[in-house]
Amino acid sequence: MKTPPFIKPVSIGKIRFDHPPVIMAPMEDISDPPFRRICREMGADWVYTEFISADGLIRDADKSLKKLDIYPQERPVSIQLFGAHIPSMVEAAKAAQEAKPDFIDINFGCPVRKVATKGAGAGMLSNLEKMTEMTRQIVRAVSLPVTVKTRLGWDQQNKNIMDIALNLQDCGIAALAIHGRTRCQLYRGKADWSLIGEVKNDPRIRIPIIGNGDITDGPSAKNALEKYGVDGIMIGRAAIGNPWVFREVKQYLLKGEMPPAPDLAERLRVCRRHIRLSAEWKGEKTALFEMRRHYCNYFKGIPNFKAYRMKLVTAPGIKELYAVLDEIEATDFSQAP
Question: Does residue 110 have an active-site annotation?
């Protein structure tokens, strides 16, 4: 197969990717070390931590500090920070640098009310001057490459992403990831990739532009790279309980073919390992709760599975959870009523 023209090397900071990187997006209670490790093994080129509160980090809050854990198998990895107070964000960036990630990322895109209404995350979209100054000070304060993840703007009438991109580029960021929705859209409607493409193809833009939003499989990833020319793609919700999406996308982009879907044996093997790694890292109680959001996709498409999904989300302990997985393994779903 002839290499498509959109498959080209991309350098961000000192890290060089031989092709546009396929990136695991930061997701609260999802992109923790166990799942980041699994996604890297499945083909993700670069992963992000969950977003970390700057205020929590500088107060030495246990939950925020725990999110700084990084393991060799997950590199390259970004630590993502959010906050509304510039001095706190600068101090947090310095603290995050001590964990030795490959990148420091600033979250200017989280749309949830409790973050945005306090002026952090996507709340910064309505204050370009403060966003710019915060970014400038963080870039100056750390020696690692700084990247930013943001959205198109606050709402339909205020899509100021071009001004945002140019301002942040002038601050010295190493790359910009753009989610193709506004803050007011949250995750509703379709992502607008046309504006992402406008930013990427503007002659004034010199930094890599990463596109995010509605990338769910190989064809949607190819369309984003081929049609809009972005330097990388970021996958978020489509990866929940489905780390194989990275394998599928990579094989489709690089070889022009779709790999076979994981069979039940592989799904069970990866799910068991995910549970074990999660329990080891965050404790059994938290692992039991946070794993629940993965089961729907881990076993998506298996007929007559509803009763087992209910058993998975109600298992009171790890031992009982493994017993349910053993029961699933012993079931012939082609014969189940």
Answer: yes
